[in-house]
Amino acid sequence: MKQKVQLFGRTLSAMVMPNIGAFITWGFIAALFIATGWLPNEKFAALVGPMSSQLLPLLIAFTGGYNVSGHRGGVLAAITTMGLIVGSDIPMFLGAMIMGPLCGFLMKKFDAAIEGKVKAGFEMLVNNFSIGIIGLILVLLAVQVISPVVQVLNNALAAGVNFFVTNHLLPFTSVLIEPAKILFLNNAINHGILTPMGSQQVNDIGKSLLFLLEANPGPGLGVLLAYCLAGKGSAKGSAPGAVIIHFFGGIHEIYFPYILMNPLLVVSVICGGAVGILVETIFGAGLTGAAAPGSILAILAMTAHDSYIGVCLGVAAAAAVSFALSMVILKVAGKEENLEAAAAQTKAMKAASKGAEAEGASLASGKKSVGEGRSEGKVEFIVFACDAGMGSSAMGATVLKKKLKEAGLESIRVQHAPVSSIPKEAQVVVTHEELGPRAAASNPKAELILIHNFLAAPEYDVLVEDLKKRNL
After folding, report:
1. What's the order of all strands across the beta sheet hosting 447-451?
2. Rounded CA separation 465/460 (Å)
3. Which helix (H) or strand (E) is 386 found in, with range?
4. 3-state secondary structure 11-63
5. pTM of the model
6. Under 8 Å between Cβ of 428 and 463
7. Strands 413-418 and 381-386, how do they pair?
8. What is the dihedral of CA 3, 9, 10, 12, to 10 degrees?
9. Higher pLDDT, 166 or 217
10. For 87-100, what is each residue's pLDDT tens digit?
11. Does the active-site annotation cover 103?
């Protein structure tokens, strides 16, 4: 069930994340040039409406269609979404996220149906006219039929958000958001749900608190600071570096293993997140666009000009509450927090429960062969995979590249990628143990290296030593 939820969330966020740059551009324009912005300018502010109502939904729809069936699916999705835009008076973010994959699916099915049936020389004619005819039908349906339905769904979601806001219940969303983040649904929640809804609020009132619900680095910062003071073993040693990567780099996945090691700490981030949202609500704080990654620097860059005090106090309050509770929990726990031992023990227990002692030994060292098994040949291509392929995987790939270079193995290509679309030619895949099943499904023939801590995983050194024997 968790894998299915992650897959659904990944589908949503995969339509938004590649276009985050456009959202940020739009956010900057809104922050600077609308009537309540830093530099009010009527001519420049005229960009805000068309970008939110047309550009952003079209980009989302094209990306959704492209992800399913390539460029043809993207074009069909954009055509259809234009019908939604014309048939509605609200930004069609939700409609774009529905029609993108749906149009891609229809295009994929049509192409499969005509494959091998088109006479030589007529391929281009059929390809172009098929999109044109199908697009004509869908865009007219979108204007007359689909748009009103999507508008009803959109209004229902907006009413739900307004209910939480008007009844001062928004802090309680932390009960869902913070645990879901630990299950690697952070990108799905932020970019798949909150970013489109927040963008619509910006279009209405110039800012939105929804951008801060998941992106606030305060709860995770409190946990990591507590480990710096009250942690033990390698967890304490790696926590200071994780603080910098989390707070300034915006890679929230870095603190997830620290909570998984002491699951009771989820109470700390829930309470910290709730208090942070409460403070921001009291001060009427909000951002003008998505803060991606969730770095304090990105958050401050997107903060509305009247919200700096509220945003800063919200982050500080979240960190303080999370830190205080985490200190108590770590003191009471009083056990040796050793990331390497915890990872090895967890993997060995999983293997033992399946009655696979040999596999358990492999898991304990951080390695597990999947598909056709471990290849003893030369390794030339390694992929580091995370949920979105942009945050922790990029960081892990950088660490691994450095270690390979020091070992004289710089010829090995290391690439980061989303866990759901790992290149087929990858020989070794490195990912967090929570994402292991999805990585195995994405590339079943690759050797899978499961890690527990992105920053200081002992599996990196084990892998490098193994590669020395196989490559040198």
Report:
1. 367-369, 447-451, 428-432, 381-386, 413-418
2. 9
3. strand 381-386
4. HHHHHHHHHHHHHHHHHHHHHHHCCCCCCCCHHHHCCHHHHHHHHHHHHHHHH
5. 0.70
6. yes
7. parallel
8. 150
9. 217
10. 988 888 889 999 99
11. no
